[in-house]
## 1
Amino acid sequence: MSSTEPMLGQTVPPAATAVAEPTNVLLPGHDVPLGRYTTVRRLLPQRPRRTIGAWCFVDHFGPDNVANRPGMGIGPHPHTGLQTVTWLVHGEIRHLDSLGSDQLIRPGQLNVMTSGRGIAHAEYSPPDHPPTLHGLQLWVALPDAARSGPPGFAHHADLPVLTDGDVSVTVLVGEFGGARSTAVVHTPLLGAQLRLPRGGTARAPLHGDFEHGVLVMSGAVEVAGIPLTPGSLLYLGTGRRELELRAEGPARLMLLGGEPFDEPLVMWWNFVGRSHEEIVEARTEWMAGGPRFGRVHGDDSAPLPAPTMPTTRLKSRDRHGRTVG
């Protein structure tokens, strides 16, 4: 997926300043057009909260009625320094990339693309697609040891699912309740979908050394005593061992967590780097059509042009949004 915003998300109130202990900070999302036909709610990054673990980008799209409409249509575009994690609740998306991957993803399946030093991909709803499109795409910042490695792509058709009382959990990334996903990531990380019935309650176990956040994809849930509906992300800080959940009606939420990611980042367009010069180099190579990113196999449409670089120098920022260096 391509970020069409060169700048980071909106400022949230001063109370959202991150602390290294349990907290409840509601981060409001904002709408961003993506491609020609899709609008997403961007929940991360925001100025005072750039990452949750190594999760550095969260887009929630839909549910959208795409009957008799093209659905998703995002042409060839590049990535560096990250992994994309795609999860669907409804619909279908076809993934194409410069490695030759051609993969249709359906609900309950997971696509993980590792950009390494550079990759190009495109995402489309197939011509004969279901009438509803609803899902998430997330980015994971690669640590310095992995971000210059080779690109890769993996499709996970079968993910671990466990049920405990009212809650059903699908583990996308990492480990939850003794169940572990086979998806390969490069820092300690958690991504899990939780489903609750009307009136359902649960106490979800958490890793105390992780920071966590929760977003609701559908329904309404009380999370740690805070009412949460689609459109916001609740940042929970670190130090929690469990999380109390209570659903008003049938609800689906995504629990994200990870070891705090302390490497400063420069995020601009579709690139995650460490310096202004890295971003300039990646943009220049993409616009020149050089070998770093390759061409997306099976897609003859024109590559998406990169935005013009800002007139000011891009600055590296830590996970709290503070300028570094």
## 2
Amino acid sequence: MTTLLLATTGGHLRQLDQLAKRLRLDDTRWITNEDEQSRALLAGRSVDFIPYVGPRDVTGVLRCVKSAHRTFGERSVHTAVSTGSGVALGYLPYLAARGVSCHYIESATRVSGPSVTGRLLSTYPAIRVYTQYRHWAGRRWSYAGNIFDDYEVLAKASTRSDRFRVVVSVGIATGYSFRRLIDHLIPILRAGGRLEQRIGLPVEVTWQTAGTPTDDLPIETRETVPSDELGELFASADAVVCHAGTGSAVAALQQGRRPILAPRLPSVGEIQDDHQVQLAEELSSRGLAVARDASAISVDDLIAARDVRVRSRTDVPEFLLRR
């Protein structure tokens, strides 16, 4: 009997990949979109790639229903688990109506309540829904754990090298620019900039900029970086600066880095709502990140990042699905 693991690429996929280790499921098959991240993250695993489903993409959701019908007909599907977003709307109601045990785990990004996807799926009694936060669990929403429970912060013995390495990443979504972050960091991180002046070492920067236009800027950027390469860059960095997306935060934590998280703000058109502000505050309260407005990141923040490490805990309990 097959268990389907369903997620859109980006933070949704990275969360499900991490949670899958705590779900302890056998005979799994992944359903996601094909891009550099998913190819690297799921290499060697059983995967069906489907077209990308964007935010509020009704046509994309309907395509997923057709894919769900085909998958159900080809495989003996017993269980389906999803962390969202649009792929969950296309697959879970269809599969639940055919007797498949269906589970939707709301993103850890949603600190104060469910997403639109979560609210819609919670109206289906046959779909079990889970929050990753105890404070808004209730009769309909169960709590079984949080992906950030996997990590703890350690002080790190200071080491020095011949350069200071920084990774700046704004995630993989191309629909919104985060130019405010890039513009603020250039004077700090450029050759001869404020960080180099303070520490007396050359600063080496990787700029991953997705949909942020940078052609007019005096920096070399990369729109995307493969997941495995980005992990290596995070692991070797002295400081990691990210937008406050779940996928970026988890990627940094998995590599032992405590990121500086800069939330995108809806008030200036960088995102649709304030969930990144909530996530940055949550991780800051756990000590797993430093939350800063994009225009407030300082040289001191970058230097302090060098001397803190994160490690994965070995005592995290299983994420128990309701039956």
